């Protein structure tokens, strides 16, 4: 019985990453779900992969699947709903240009005793994995050169981490500014993990990320916002709500390497500008919100957070309707 799930969205014919993931997923008890879109090839075929064409998605009972517009990465949300419906004990999300290595298939746990950052503000997680001047997409440009607490001086804490960000070697997730002016490839050190707890911010992405059931509602990717910010702003919302429940975010060693799909870097830069200008304000505003603790209050907290993002003008008002459908669909699932 496959009780774990890998979710990818793709508009390509099977890539090296998809083929490799599919070939290993069955051996490791993963159900591999690929969500297509209007540009996906009609003849997509890949063994050990559940491919959902747009036509197949529209036949699902999820209200979100009917309402979400096409041609957007946020349709990946449908893959999360399918995973929940299948009773997945974990959901691992990745992309169609991330090739898993052996450690990707190791058993995952949600509790750690690890070096922990508490109330440290903005901290560049990548600095704990390399001496290269590199930062994750969504990190504040004005904080790039700020020093970090040495790894050996961080307190070891026992933490619950239902959200875990794995790094990616060779072509890691960085912003367009980095790609335009600084060198790649790069590989990260493999002997560390670090926990971000209450009051310590770092963006995480949707490219090599593990989620445990308590955090499943926080998987929600917003549609009515910058394409390059959808997973980054999701991460800020998720971190803020996680702290309300005394949860932490784990950053760990690379378990994939990326052979990046073709991108227009200037278009990426254009889509990221709103993040460069707004990310600090977004997190400050989220910190000021009055939220409620408890897993049962996550839907309420999501609505409060997205209303704030709408209020400050970075997410469109239409998002609330999609979010309502997402929450309604989840409420019908036994998670």
Can you describe this structure?
The protein has helices at residues 16-25, 54-58, 63-67, 76-85, 176-181, 230-244, 265-287, 298-311, 319-331, and strands at 4-9, 30-35, 50-52, 91-94, 98-100, 111-117, 121-122, 156-160, 163-169, 193-196, 200-201, 208-211, 249-258. The protein contains nine helices and 13 strands. It has 335 residues and is of the alpha/beta class.
In short:
With 335 residues, this protein is of the alpha/beta class. The chain is built from 9 helices and 13 strands.
Comma- or semicolon-separated keywords:
9 helices, two-stranded parallel sheet, single chain, alpha/beta, 335 residues
Number of helices: 9
Main sheet record: 11 strands, mixed
Spatial extent as radius of gyration: 19 Å
Order of helices and strands: EHEEHHHEEEEEEHEEEHEHHH
As an assembly, this protein is: single chain
Please tell me the overall pLDDT. 96
Secondary structure: number of strands: 13
Instruction: Tell me, briefly, the overall form.
Output: globular
Task: List the uncertain runs.
Answer: none
Measured between the Cα atoms of the first and last residue, the distance is 17 Å
| Helix amount | 25-40%
Beta strand %: 15-25%
Global structural class? alpha/beta
Secondary structure topology:
Layout: E1 4-9, H1 16-25, E2 30-35, E3 50-52, H2 54-58, H3 63-67, H4 76-85, E4 91-94, E5 98-100, E6 111-117, E7 121-122, E8 156-160, E9 163-169, H5 176-181, E10 193-196, E11 200-201, E12 208-211, H6 230-244, E13 249-258, H7 265-287, H8 298-311, H9 319-331
Parallel strand pairs: 1-2, 1-4, 2-3, 6-10, 7-11, 9-13
Antiparallel strand pairs: 4-12, 5-13, 6-8, 9-12, 10-13
Helix pairs in contact: 6-7, 8-9
